[in-house]
Design goal:
heterodimer, A: 376 residues, alpha/beta, Arc Repressor Mutant, subunit A, elongated, B: 162 residues, two-stranded parallel ribbon, 9 helices, 48% helix
Chain lengths: 376, 162
């Protein structure tokens, strides 16, 4: 655990309350601000009595100062969502923060070090959509994502880019996913209950934000669209995601798209989208962008014909459930299992943080092929 | 007694026998966690609160001062569940002799770190001392041999070979 958690939290709270170190020294009854400074930097430990003074006089709970499973004063999120009330999203952000904090805390506990370097794309807000699309194409080629780029993307993000990818079940159906940036960790959360096409698009879109965060910090909350978008950064992210998941070299060779109309076009869109594990709608607009399909032809395709990739009874959605990825990620679960086995975290505590019963933990480990730690 | 130990004693139908041996005590958080809706186990057991309380000599309310004292003494206590945290906060503030029964490795690790290894006891040992052998087998983490092995492993990892 962070050996100076209490000092760091005290500093975060002081800054949040716009207090100076002198102000805080008076709260504690210290002679000067140097003592506060020493506590904040970890040179001096707070006594139990002083910790109680902090709790009582600064209006924060004991957990605020000591709970390592929460993000305090750090972690910036970008949420993709549809009509989710701000309060609901705020509550879920807290839960997501706990998962991320758990990964970081337990990783440190078992001796894992954060990644030394952080990758980024050479794109800026003034980059053209073509530049973002080219970056997506090159990403798929560079990381050898193969003929179905969606399938390997999450693994590549975790293994090659050290981005934690968590498959989660948000409490609200409109939450598609999120990117989160911490000083020493990048995380993407994806709603595992979404259909595969949406899930993959969200993943690639959030990857763009992670790889361009410094140059173009994303907004806190955005609408989950696959085309257009409210601002330029989102449009660039969509262009990148489309090209990554549907490289021109693949979609060009499927069929002569320009010759198809009506039912034949819808059928080809649905079959190709299923194969690439994207949505038919995203594929259609990708073809328009590539000049392989006229915009007027795309607009003439009835929405019903390509909804759920043409599975009228919701087959695609049902498939999503049966092919739903296991919760969290293998890397995440491996760290949790090791931490439990080494006695670094209580099983009841981590089960509660993950929203599982103690007995369900074993199933989660099994779903990732990770040996379960001891049984309680 | 922590939540896990109480739930396991109940599962193997040993609670009544257990109370005949030791003066069992717990903290309010653990008591709450044993009740349906808070066990975080599947399936949950119906643990009768009245019968449970009849077997407990005391259920302690833990003060903020005790919690703060425990967390300052070892910040790793924050890695525990609420019940386990409260139990350690209470135990560390007690001036008298006590033993703690709770199988979670992280809780055992706190005992090792604080050089209180000899205060940690397996549920099996408590049942043996009460002269009771349950018909339903105890889970591994509640047996004495597992506790001995685990404490040795934890002591080695913490650099405290006992």
């Amino acid at each position: 655990m962070n050996t100076n958690l209490i000092g760091a939290r005290l500093k975060a709270l002081r800054e949040e309350k716009n207090l100076s170190q002198d102000d805080l020294a008076r709260v504690f009854g210290f002679k000067d601000r140097q003592t506060v400074s020493a506590i904040e930097t970890g040179e001096r430990r707070l006594s139990a009595d002083e910790l109680l003074v902090a709790v009582q006089k600064l209006g924060a709970s004991l957990d605020y100062f000591t709970d390592p499973f929460r993000l305090v004063g750090e972690g910036r999120f970008n949420w993709r969502q549809s009509n989710v009330p701000a309060a609901v999203l705020g509550a879920y952000e807290k839960i997501a923060g706990q998962l991320i904090a758990a990964f970081r805390t337990l990783g440190t506990q078992i001796g894992e070090k954060p990644s030394l370097v952080r990758r980024s794309l050479r794109l800026t807000k003034t980059s053209r959509f073509e530049d973002a699309a080219e970056a997506g194409e090159r990403f798929a080629a560079t990381y050898e994502l193969g003929d179905v780029p969606a399938r390997r993307l999450a693994d590549v993000m975790e293994q090659k880019l050290n981005i934690l990818v968590l498959m989660v079940t948000p409490s609200h159906v409109g939450v598609s996913g999120a990117a989160c940036r911490l000083p020493d960790l990048d995380v993407v959360l994806i709603n595992r209950d979404e259909v595969p096409g949406r899930r993959h698009f969200d993943l690639a879109h959030e990857l763009f934000h992670i790889l361009t965060w410094d140059a173009m910090p994303p907004v806190h909350i955005e609408d989950a669209t696959e085309t257009g978008g409210a601002n330029r950064v989102e449009q660039l992210a969509n262009a990148f995601a489309s090209a990554l998941l549907m490289p021109a070299r693949i979609v060009r060779t499927v069929v002569d798209w320009g010759t198809l109309r009506g039912d034949a076009l819808a059928a080809a869109l649905n079959a190709t989208a299923d194969r690439l594990e994207v949505t038919s709608s995203a594929l259609m607009w990708r073809l328009v962008t590539l000049g392989l399909l006229a915009k007027s032809t795309a607009l003439a395709v009835p929405g019903d014909a390509i909804r759920n990739n043409g599975h009228p009874t919701g087959h695609f959605a049902e498939d999503a459930t049966s092919h739903r990825p296991p919760k969290f990620s293998k890397r995440f679960v491996e760290i949790v299992a090791r931490a439990i086995d080494e006695g670094r975290v209580s099983t009841r505590k981590i089960a509660s943080l993950l929203g599982l019963s103690v007995d369900d933990l074993a199933e989660t480990f099994d779903a990732h092929g990770v040996p379960a730690p001891y049984e309680l | 007694m922590d939540t896990n130990a109480i739930v396991e004693a109940w599962r193997v139908d040993a609670w009544r026998a257990l109370r005949g041996g030791y003066g069992l005590e717990t903290v309010e958080e653990c008591l709450i966690e044993t009740q349906t809706g808070f066990q975080n186990r599947r399936p949950e057991q119906q643990i009768d609160r009245t019968v449970l309380l009849e077997g407990l000599k005391a259920v302690h309310k833990v003060s903020d001062a005790e919690r703060a004292g425990a967390l300052i003494r070892d910040g790793e206590i924050a890695m525990l569940d609420e019940g386990e945290k409260a139990l350690w906060a209470h135990a560390l503030a007690r001036p008298d002799a006590w033993v703690m029964c709770g199988p979670d490795k992280s809780s055992l690790r706190i005992g090792v770190r604080l050089k209180l290894r000899d205060r940690l006891v397996a549920l099996e040992r408590l049942l043996d001392d009460a002269g009771f052998r349950p018909k339903i087998g105890l889970r591994t983490a509640y047996r004495s041999d597992w506790l001995d092995r685990t404490l040795t492993e934890l002591a080695q990892r913490e650099g405290r070979i006992a």
